[in-house]
Design a protein that fits this description.
heterotrimer, A mainly alpha (489), B mainly alpha (228), C mainly alpha (159), B: 228 residues, mainly alpha, C: mainly alpha, 4 helices, elongated
Chain lengths: 489, 228, 159
C-alpha cells in the first residue's frame, strides 16, 4: 500500500524534471505529464477495482502516526483523489507557446498538491499542500500573460496570504493546546481540550484561512477576476475541483476536531451570505466567465449550507451537491472556452453550434434542479434535510436556497433564450467559435451527467455508503491509531 | 476616518486574540509528540539535531512540499517576469568596494554555505539556510557588474537534478520495500559528520536546489528592472 | 517590574501585535507594495506565534551533544513547522514582488484603486461588454442635442 504515495510524489518528480526534459526532447516532454497523471489514475482505480478493504492508513517514511505524517484513504478520499488525477488530465494545459514547460510543471504540482489535500491526515501537512496548490495556481493564472490576469493574481495572492497567516495562527493555537498535529490524535483529544473558546477561535481562524479557496463569504473577492482572466480549462479545474478539496478539509476538521454547535452555525451564516451575494451578482453579470464565477460562489454557498447539517443525510446532500457542481461547472467552463465574453454575442448561436447550445441547456437544467437530472436529486435531498431541522436559522437557509434557485433559473434561462432566439439585431457582434476540443470535453461532461441520471439509484446508494463511512469517527481513529496494549500517548 | 475605524477594529481584534492566548499554558506545552520524538529520534534516525530529524525524517513530506512551493514560486516568477532583457549597458557598474569586496567574499560565502548545508544534521542550519547563502554568493558578483550573466541553463539543470534526487532517494526506500522517504543507510555514530543515514544527502540536495533556484530568481529580478 | 506584565504577556503581545499590524496594513494600504510589506510583517508574527507554542521554561535547544545528563529540551516540532512556513512565505513574497514589477511596467501605476480600475476596464474590453459606470459613458444612452453655432442664442441673446 505504500506505493500510493506515488500519486503525490511522481507528479512532483515530473514537475522538477519537466523543464530539463523539454529542452532535450520536446516529444518526450509533452507526453511526460499526461503519462504520470494516467498512471496516478490507474493506481487509484486499482484500489477500487481490486476491492481493497478501505479505509487504510499509510505512514509516510515508516514513522507511525502521530509522530509521523500519514495518508488516510477511505472511500471519500479515494473518490476525490481519483477525481483530481482525472481532472488534471482533462484540464491539462496542452497549448504550445514559449512557457509550455513551466505551465505544465506548475499543473503537475497543482495536481500533486490537490491529491495531497484529499489524502493527507495531518493538519500542518494539509497546510503545506494547500499553499502549494495556491502558489501553483498563481503561476498558472499569471501564465495567461495579460496584465489583467497578473493584477487578478495579485489580489488572489494577497487574500491567500491573509488566509495563510490566519491558518498558521489557528494551527499555533491548536498545537499549543493539544501538542499534536495528527487529525486522528486531535479527534481523540478534542472533546476535552478543544471544546472551549480557544478551540472555537482556532476553528474560526482555520476556517477563514482555508475558506479562501473554498470561496467562503468574506474572502471570495478574488473569484470573478480570476475566473474572468484565467484560461477556461484552469478555471474549470479551480471552480470544479479545488474548491471542493478545500471544502473536504473543512469537512474533516468539522467532523473530527471541532464539534461545537457554534462552529456549525458560523458555517450556516457564511453559507447563506455567500448564496445571496453570489447569485445576485451572477444575475447582474454581463459576460460568461464572471457570471460563472459568481454562480460558483452561490453554488458553494449552498454546499456550505449543506455542510452545516449535522446528520448523515446532510452529508449525503453535501456529497451529491459537490459532485454535481464539479461536473456542471467544469462542463460550463469548457463551453466558456470559446463562448467566454459578452453574453450578447451568444444571440442565436444555437443555429451555428447546436450541440454546444444543447449542452448548455442540459447543464442549465441540471443546475437549476429539473427532474430527473441529478441536480434535482441533490437539491431535493438538501430541501428535505433543511425542512426537517428545527432551528430557525435552517429555515432561513431553506428560504434563501429556494430564492437562489429562482434567481438561477432566471439568469441561466435568460442565456438559453438568448441562444435560441431567432431575432436578428442590426449590430449583432460576431458570434464566437467553440474550439473542437472544448466541445468534446464539454460533451464528455454532458454524457456523464446523462449517465448519472440513468444510474441515479446505484449512485445514490454508493454516496450513502460513503457518507456513513465518513461520519464514523471511531473508524477513522481506529484505522490511524490502532489501539495498542500499551495505551495511547 | 476609514483608517481610524479600521485601526479600532484591528485593535479590538488584537485584544480579543490576546485574551484567548492568555488561556494557553505558556512554557509548559503538552508535548504529546515532542517528548516521544525526542526520546526515539537518536535510535530511529541518529541525527544530533533533533529539529533536522523532524524536518527530514518524521515530517519529510512537508519538506518535499516546501521544496515544491519554492520551485513553483520561482517558476511562476520566471513566467511573470518574461524573457530576460539584453540591455546590458544601461545600469551603472558597482564601485571599487563592491567589486573587490564581492570577489573577496565569494569564497567565504561559498564555504559558509556548504558548511551549513553539510552540518545540518549536527548543528542548527541545513539545506534551506545554506542554500540561501549560496545564492547570495552567486548573486554578489551580479550586483557588482550588472552586465554579467549567470548561466541560467546550468542553474536550471542543477536545480532539476537536485530536486529530482531528493524524490529519488525517497523512492529508493520505496524500491527496497520500505516506506517512501524512510531513512536508509547506516546511522553510524551520533554526532559525527557521516551519520544519520540519508539525511545529509537529502539536505545537500535541498541546499543545491534552493541555491540554484534563488540565484536564478534574483538574477531574473535584477535583469528585468532594465526593461522600460 | 511592572505588576501583571509577565514575560508571557510581552511575548504574546509582540506576536499578535505583529499579526494585527500586518493584517491592518494589508487591508488599509493604498500602495500595492505596502500591502506586500504588511503581509511580510503579518507572516513574521504568525511564525513567532508558532515558535512560542513550543517554548519550555529553563530548556535548551533540541540538539544532542555530549553532556553528563540530558537537560530538558524545547519542543522541536514547532521549530520544524516554522522552518517550512518561513520558506513558504519567502516564495510567495518573491512572487508578489515579481508581479508588482510587471504591473508597474504595464499599468504604470501601483495605487490600489488605479490598478483595480484598469484591470476591470481591461476585462470588460476583452469580453466586449460595456460597463455601466459613469466614467465610461457619462450620459448613459442619451445623446445631447448639439448647440447650433452662430445663432442669436449663442451670442447671448439680442444685444
Amino acid at each position: 500500500m505504500n506505493y500510493l504515495v506515488l500519486t503525490i510524489a511522481l507528479p512532483m518528480l515530473g514537475a522538477f524534471l519537466l523543464p530539463v526534459v523539454m529542452q532535450t526532447s520536446k516529444a518526450i516532454g509533452l507526453w511526460l505529464g499526461p503519462l504520470i497523471l494516467a498512471y496516478g489514475c490507474w493506481l487509484l482505480a486499482n484500489l477500487w477495482l481490486n476491492d481493497v478493504s478501505l479505509p487504510i492508513s499509510i505512514a509516510i517514511g515508516g514513522f507511525a502516526a502521530p509522530l509521523g505524517i500519514n495518508l488516510y484513504i477511505d472511500s471519500l478520499a479515494l473518490l476525490f483523489a481519483f477525481a483530481t488525477q482525472l481532472m488534471g488530465l482533462i484540464c491539462w494545459p496542452f497549448s504550445l507557446n514559449q512557457d509550455t514547460a513551466r505551465r505544465q510543471s506548475l499543473m503537475l504540482l497543482l495536481v500533486a498538491a490537490s491529491t495531497g489535500l484529499a489524502l493527507s491526515g495531518d493538519l500542518f501537512n494539509l497546510y503545506v499542500f494547500y499553499e502549494l496548490a495556491a502558489v501553483a495556481t498563481f503561476g498558472l493564472v499569471a501564465a495567461s500573460n495579460t496584465t489583467a490576469s497578473i493584477a487578478a493574481t495579485f489580489r488572489y495572492l494577497i487574500l491567500s496570504g491573509i488566509g495563510s497567516v490566519l491558518t498558521l495562527l489557528g494551527i499555533a493555537l491548536v498545537y499549543s493546546q493539544t501538542g499534536t498535529l495528527n487529525l486522528a490524535h486531535l479527534a481523540q483529544l478534542a472533546p476535552e481540550l478543544l471544546n472551549d473558546k480557544l478551540g472555537l477561535t482556532a476553528y474560526l481562524l482555520i476556517l477563514i484561512g482555508i475558506g479562501v479557496k473554498a470561496e467562503l463569504f468574506p474572502v471570495n473577492a478574488w473569484v470573478p477576476e480570476i475566473y474572468g482572466t484565467a484560461s477556461s480549462r484552469l478555471s474549470g479545474f479551480l471552480a470544479g475541483l479545488l474548491s471542493k478539496l478545500a471544502l473536504l478539509v473543512i469537512l474533516r476538521l468539522l467532523l473530527l476536531v471541532f464539534h461545537q454547535p457554534e462552529a456549525i452555525q458560523i458555517i450556516l451564516i457564511l453559507g447563506i451570505l455567500g448564496v445571496i451575494s453570489g447569485e445576485l451578482a451572477a444575475w447582474r453579470a454581463k459576460d460568461m466567465r464572471r457570471m460563472l464565477g459568481f454562480s460558483s460562489i452561490g453554488q458553494l454557498g449552498i454546499v456550505f449550507i449543506a455542510l452545516s447539517l449535522p446528520d448523515e443525510r446532510g452529508l449525503l446532500a453535501l456529497l451529491a451537491l459537490s459532485l454535481h457542481h464539479l461536473v456542471i461547472k467544469t462542463g460550463l467552463f469548457m463551453l466558456a472556452d470559446g463562448w467566454g465574453g459578452s453574453l450578447e454575442r451568444l444571440r442565436g448561436i444555437a443555429r451555428t453550434s447546436p450541440i454546444g447550445a444543447a449542452l448548455f441547456t442540459l447543464f442549465a437544467l441540471s443546475l437549476v434542479g429539473v427532474p430527473p437530472l441529478p441536480g434535482f436529486w441533490a437539491k431535493f435531498t438538501l430541501i428535505t434535510e433543511l425542512a426537517a431541522q428545527s432551528e430557525p436559522l435552517y429555515l432561513i437557509g431553506l428560504l434563501v436556497f429556494l430564492l437562489a434557485t429562482v434567481i438561477e433559473t432566471s439568469y441561466m434561462f435568460r442565456i438559453v433564450a438568448l441562444m435560441y432566439s431567432r431575432a436578428e439585431l442590426p449590430n449583432q457582434p460576431a458570434r464566437p467559435h467553440l474550439p473542437g476540443i472544448s466541445l468534446a470535453t464539454a460533451s464528455l461532461f454532458g454524457i456523464s451527467l446523462l449517465a448519472a441520471t440513468v444510474l441515479i439509484a446505484p449512485i445514490g446508494d454508493g454516496l450513502q455508503a460513503v457518507a456513513s463511512e465518513t461520519k464514523n469517527i471511531d473508524l477513522y481513529i481506529e484505522t490511524v491509531l490502532p489501539a495498542t496494549p500499551g495505551g495511547q500517548l | 476616518m476609514r483608517n481610524l475605524t479600521g485601526l479600532l477594529f484591528a485593535g479590538g481584534l488584537g485584544f480579543m486574540l490576546l485574551a484567548i492566548a492568555s488561556g494557553i499554558d505558556f512554557g509548559n506545552p503538552a508535548m504529546r509528540i515532542g517528548e516521544a520524538i525526542q526520546s526515539s529520534s537518536p535510535q530511529e534516525i541518529g541525527a544530533a539535531n533533533i529539529v533536522t530529524s523532524v524536518v527530514l525524517g518524521y515530517r519529510g513530506i512537508d519538506t518535499l512540499g516546501e521544496l515544491s512551493i519554492l520551485f513553483a514560486a520561482a517558476s511562476a516568477a520566471g513566467l511573470v517576469l518574461g524573457r530576460r532583457q539584453t540591455t546590458a549597458g544601461t545600469q551603472t557598474r558597482g564601485g571599487f568596494v563592491l567589486h573587490h569586496g564581492g570577489a573577496m567574499l565569494f569564497p567565504f560565502l561559498l564555504t559558509i554555505g556548504f558548511y551549513i548545508i553539510f552540518h545540518g544534521h549536527l548543528t542548527p542550519g541545513g539545506g534551506f539556510q545554506g542554500g540561501v547563502i549560496l545564492a547570495a554568493a552567486f548573486f554578489l558578483p551580479l550586483l557588482a557588474s550588472p552586465g554579467a550573466r549567470l548561466h541560467h541553463s546550468i542553474l536550471s539543470v542543477i536545480e532539476a537534478f537536485a530536486g529530482a534526487s531528493f524524490i529519488l532517494i525517497g523512492l529508493a526506500a520505496l524500491a527496497e520495500g520500505k516506506a517512501f522517504l524512510q531513512p536508509m543507510l547506516n546511522q553510524d555514530t551520533l554526532g559525527s559528520l557521516i551519520s544519520a543515514g540519508t539525511l545529509p544527502l537529502l539536505y545537500i540536495a535541498v541546499g543545491l536546489k534552493v541555491g540554484a533556484e534563488l540565484a536564478s530568481l534574483l538574477s531574473n529580478l535584477a535583469q528585468t528592472e532594465s526593461e522600460r | 517590574m511592572i505588576p501583571g506584565v509577565t514575560l508571557e504577556l510581552i511575548l504574546y503581545t509582540t506576536a499578535l501585535g505583529l499579526v494585527i499590524i500586518g493584517l491592518s496594513g494589508v487591508v488599509l494600504s493604498r500602495h500595492l507594495f505596502r500591502m506586500v510589506l504588511a503581509l511580510v510583517i503579518a507572516e513574521a508574527g504568525a511564525n513567532l506565534m508558532l515558535v512560542l507554542s513550543g517554548y519550555r521554561w529553563e530548556a535548551v535547544a533540541p540538539i544532542l551533544i555530549e553532556r553528563s545528563e540530558q537537560p530538558v529540551m524545547v519542543d522541536p516540532v514547532p521549530q520544524a513547522m516554522v522552518l517550512t512556513a518561513i520558506v513558504i512565505g519567502v516564495g510567495v513574497q518573491a512572487l508578489a514582488v515579481s508581479i508588482l514589477i510587471r504591473i508597474r511596467q504595464r499599468y504604470a501605476a501601483l495605487d490600489r484603486h488605479d490598478v483595480a480600475e484598469k484591470m476591470d476596464a481591461e476585462i470588460a474590453i476583452t469580453a466586449g461588454i460595456r460597463r455601466d459606470i459613469s466614467q465610461d459613458a457619462p450620459l448613459g444612452d442619451r445623446p445631447i442635442q448639439p448647440v447650433p453655432a452662430h445663432t442669436s442664442e449663442s451670442r447671448g441673446g439680442e444685444l
